[in-house]
Specification:
By secondary structure, this protein is mostly beta strands. The protein has no helices and 37 strands.
Length: 366
């Protein structure tokens, strides 16, 4: 006979639960594979507690999960991370919870400090009404690699750490992201809090839907901090207003350890928007490529731009300038090449006294 799904998830919280109350017993070792988990209030598959051995969640279909809007324990797949988990090859579609619950189609949380990496690899996420992949609370060292994400309403990948130094340290690499609506949400939103673990964001292909709306959230990658602990390299970012934006003011002087290197930007209005309260700061931008652009670097949320397109030689920086630099923070041995070379004019300048902008001496005329 005929049948239909219970409205809005019915009364069932989870499709499959692994390790219920396992904090008391050392946790499971198990494989959850080949299931279809549809139409639930919270999760399709929920791995709870602490696992002392491996938990593999692979090749499942999770659809129409998370109907209870605002629930913080929700996801097509939700894991409480111990470090031995692999979430691989799953298809998560039509996740229903909005971003208000800090959950996504795949949600990774942790209640304890984590020392062993876990993997979220090769999954397909389509049509989430909230986030795509959420790495929250004390989750750490998560390898987010090779996922296909399309049609999320909120950010596709987001870090939401609690205030501990051992959170984060994730690798977000080789993901293919396509935004399909004109809503304003940063595709990869990186929050570091007080974590001192380095996070790498590399080789992701991120395609936006709107490059005309000037909004700090309309960005391929958005950083909410101004530290050196997030490395952003070799990403392909296309069709956003901002390629990479750092909304906080970058007031660290000469921030030579910050890495924004070898990214490719296409059809964006501004490549890098890294703002500072004054022009006495330098955030190095190295070997990036800009295609069909209005502005390569600019400020964010007012202020002035701190990002400067330079070349690196070890810890030394070389900038192009039409005169001896009068802005930025520089160190002894940094150089400025003359951007408008002409016979009888300086070939460039070298910094002999560190400062903002420091003391610069001509390297001789052409």
């Amino acid at each position: 006979g005929s049948w239909s799904l219970a409205a809005n998830g019915g009364a069932r919280r989870h499709g499959i639960v692994v390790g219920y109350n396992s904090n008391a017993v050392g946790g499971p070792r198990c494989i959850v594979s080949g299931n279809v988990c549809r139409n639930t209030l919270w999760t399709g598959i929920y791995k709870q507690g602490v696992s002392s051995g491996a938990v593999i969640i692979e090749g499942n279909i999770c659809d129409l999960n998370g109907y209870e809007v605002g629930a913080t324990l929700a996801g097509g797949v939700y894991i409480n991370q111990s470090g031995n988990e692999i979430v691989s090859g799953n298809v998560v579609t039509n996740y229903q919870n909005t971003a208000s619950g800090d959950t996504g189609a795949i949600t990774v949380a942790a209640s304890d400090n984590v020392a062993i990496p876990c993997d979220v690899v090769g999954n397909k996420i389509v049509g989430s009404l909230g986030y795509g992949i959420v790495l929250k609370t004390r989750s750490a060292l998560v390898n987010v690699d090779g996922n296909d994400i399309a049609g999320c309403f909120a950010s596709d990948i987001i870090t939401i750490p609690s205030g501990v130094s051992t959170a984060c340290g994730h690798k977000i690499t080789n993901n293919n992201i396509v935004r399909t609506s004109s809503n304003i949400a940063a595709s990869i939103l990186l929050q570091q809090s007080v974590s001192t673990r380095y996070m790498t964001v590399a080789r992701n292909v991120i395609k936006g839907n709107d490059n005309t709306t000037n909004n700090v959230q309309n960005a391929g990658i958005r950083r909410t901090g101004s530290d050196a602990y997030i490395i952003i390299v070799k990403n392909h970012i296309e069709n956003f207003y901002y390629g990479v934006i750092g909304a906080n003011f970058w007031g660290g002087g000469r921030m030579v350890d910050v890495q924004f290197d070898a990214n490719i930007f296409i059809d964006c209005i501004t490549g890098f928007a890294l703002g500072a309260t004054s022009n006495a700061h330098t955030v190095p931008l190295t070997d990036n490529r800009f295609i069909n652009f209005s502005t390569l670097t600019g400020p964010a949320l007012g202020g002035v731009a701190a990002g400067r397109i330079v070349q690196r030689l070890g810890q030394r920086l070389q900038w192009e300038s039409s005169s001896a630099p009068s802005v930025g923070s520089w160190s002894v041995g940094d150089r400025a090449a003359n951007a408008a070379p002409a016979a009888g004019q300086p070939r460039g300048w070298i910094c002999t006294v560190a400062g903002a902008p420091g003391t610069w001496v001509s390297e001789g005329n052409l």
